[in-house]
Every structure is written in C-alpha cells, then in structure tokens.
Amino acid sequence: MNIYISNLSFNVTDDDLRDYFAEYGEVSSAKVIMDKFTGKSRGFAFVEMSDDEAAKKAIEELDGATVDGRTIGVSVAKPKEDRAGGNKGDAGGFQRRNNNYSNSRY
C-alpha cells in the first residue's frame, strides 16, 4: 500500500521515515519529495508497505502524530489521476478569464 505523509519537517529524511514506519511492518520504500530546483524537502513524502494491514495500522496510529515538532498527516496515497486540484495544464496555475476586452481595441 502506498502511503502519503504531509506536513513533514524539512529535516526529515528517507531513513527517518523508514524508521518511523518500520515499527508497523516491512517498508518497501520511503521517499521524501524534494524540490528539483533547490534540492530541499517539499514537506511531504510517500512510504510503500507490502502488508496492507500493517500499512492501515501505521496510518491509523501515525496520522496526527508529532514528528520533529510538526503534526503530520498520514493517509492512503491517491493515484495521480484521482487527485483533485492541480493546474490542469494552464500556465502557472492561472485561469484565463473570458472577457470582452481580450484581443480588441477600446
């Protein structure tokens, strides 16, 4: 099961995550998501656990826990196509407005 962890301290590493979740079962992978330009943590991560029951127990017990001074959110990761929001392909997340002034003179 793939698990999403939010509101992580920027100091938490992949190994830290692996240690937190290993108490509940085997961790297949643990990955803090890094900003590709700055190389710093973006404050969220994904942990993969092979045993769904162990993963559910980890989610139940770690959601709302305090890690490195921050209250983390822990939930089942949603597949990319099921996530709400995002910029849906528009440039920089801005929405174009349909108005009477575009491409016209005053």
Could you please describe the fold and organization of this structure?
The protein has 106 residues and is α+β, with helices and mostly antiparallel strands. Helices cover 19% and strands 28% of the residues. It is built from two helices and six strands. The protein has helices spanning 14-22, 52-62, and strands spanning 2-6, 27-34, 41-49, 66-67, 70-71, 73-76. The strands form two sheets. A four-stranded antiparallel beta sheet has the order 2-3-1-6, with helices on one face. Strand 4 and strand 5 (70-71) form a beta hairpin. It is globular and about 35 Å long. The mean pLDDT is 85.
> Roughly how many Å apart are the termini?
58 Å
List how many beta strands DSSP finds. Answer: 6
What is the average per-residue confidence, as pLDDT, rounded to a whole number? 85
Structural class: alpha+beta
Lateral arrangement of strands in the main beta sheet: 2-3-1-6
Shape: globular
- Largest sheet, strands/sense/barrel: 4 strands, antiparallel
- Taking all Cα atoms into account, the compactness measure Rg is 19 Å
Estimated share of beta-strand residues: 25-35%
Low-confidence stretches: none
Order of helices and strands: EHEEHEEE
What share of residues is helical? 10-25%
SS field, number of helical segments: 2
